[in-house]
């Protein structure tokens, strides 16, 4: 989340305003979840709100994980939930956990090209090159051969191939959109850390 305007530092008033807006955003997302605790969408939105604040508000990463986990409890067979929480762990550089969640996503949906693409990225970061190559090859089989995604996969396979002990076969086709997990927002030195309210506590009345 970019909070430092170009060409200048934040004033004390700017910092206070940002802090108030962040806290308001958290309260509103929590209130929505409290009103519809069995709605998967509300927990996804709450998780996304916390995720955007992970490098800006203390404890936001843990509340994002907790919210993603609640979404999984409510909808355990949805591979996108596992991709989302895996993406958060990937951004936090916990590649072992990211791999576990990405693996679950493709187990649930064997034709999930983006799941395999993210799994390959996590394997690569974890120095498991052969597994990264295999997952990337599978992603390549699930995107159309004339797509940008296919070209992206081929380029990355060519980069990995020299690191393998033996030559691998090239992947083939079908369609999807491949995207790595989003990076976490960058914290600015001008904004103090914000304590994230406990979602189990009752939000203050306006």
Q: Give Rg in angstroms.
A: 20 Å
Helix content: 55-70%
Largest sheet: 2 strands, parallel
The side-by-side strand order for the widest beta sheet comes to 1-2
Distance between the termini: 26 Å
What order do the helices and strands follow? HHEHHHHHHE
| Number of helical segments with 4 or more residues | 8
Q: What structural class results from the helix and strand content? A: mainly alpha
Oligomer: single chain
Uncertain segments are: 1-8, 171-175
The total strand number stands at 2
- The best one-word shape is globular
Beta-strand percentage range: under 5%
Report mean pLDDT, rounded to a whole number. Answer: 79
Structure description:
Helix content is 57%, strand content 2%. By secondary structure, it is mainly α. Strands 1-2 form a two-stranded parallel ribbon. α7 (129-141) runs antiparallel to α8 (148-160). The chain starts with 11 loop residues before the first helix and ends in an 11-residue tail after the last strand. Residues 1-8 and 171-175 have low confidence and may be disordered.
Task: Please specify the SSE layout and strand pairing.
Elements: H1 12-35, H2 40-52, E1 57-58, H3 60-74, H4 79-91, H5 95-108, H6 113-125, H7 129-141, H8 148-160, E2 194-195
Parallel strand pairs: 1-2
Helix pairs in contact: 1-2, 2-3, 3-4, 4-5, 5-6, 6-7, 7-8
């Amino acid at each position: 989340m970019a909070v430092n305007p170009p060409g200048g530092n934040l004033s004390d008033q700017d910092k206070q305003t940002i802090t108030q807006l962040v806290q308001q955003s958290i309260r509103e997302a929590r209130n929505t979840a409290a009103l519809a605790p069995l709605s998967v969408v509300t927990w996804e939105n709450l998780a996304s709100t916390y995720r955007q604040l992970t490098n800006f508000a203390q404890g936001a990463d843990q509340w994002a994980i907790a919210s993603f986990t609640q979404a999984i409890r409510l909808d355990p067979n949805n591979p996108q939930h596992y991709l989302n929480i895996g993406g958060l762990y990937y951004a936090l550089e916990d590649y072992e956990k990211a791999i576990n969640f990405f693996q679950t996503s493709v187990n649930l949906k064997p034709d999930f090209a983006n799941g395999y693409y993210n799994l390959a990225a996590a394997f690569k970061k974890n120095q498991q090159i052969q597994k990264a190559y295999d997952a990337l090859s599978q992603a390549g089989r699930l995107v159309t051969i004339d797509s940008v995604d296919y070209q992206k996969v081929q380029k990355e396979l060519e980069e990995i191939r020299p690191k393998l002990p033996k030559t691998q076969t090239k992947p083939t086709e079908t369609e999807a959109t491949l995207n790595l997990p989003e990076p976490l927002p960058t914290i600015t030195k001008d904004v103090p850390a914000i304590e994230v309210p406990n979602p189990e506590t009752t939000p203050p009345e306006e």
